[in-house]
Amino acid sequence: MGSAMEEVAEKLRRMLNVEILKIEEEGDRMVVYVPEDQIRIAVGRGGAAVKAAELVLGRRIEVKSK
Predict the structure, then answer these.
(1) SS3 for 61?
(2) Mean pLDDT throughout 25-38?
(3) Domains and CATH numbers, the chain
């Protein structure tokens, strides 16, 4: 990951409160890979954590387990 992507990964780690394994950029969205046992934490209740991160970063985020 480049330094800009490392910054984004660190922001996501703090916002979602999970370990970020990998980030893939696909157009205007990001696919964020987290450990399988942390996916519920990353998404948040009703998707609240992901929605908040999307607002801060200004991009759509899809969370997947790895």
Answers:
(1) strand
(2) 94
(3) 27-66 (3.30.300.20)
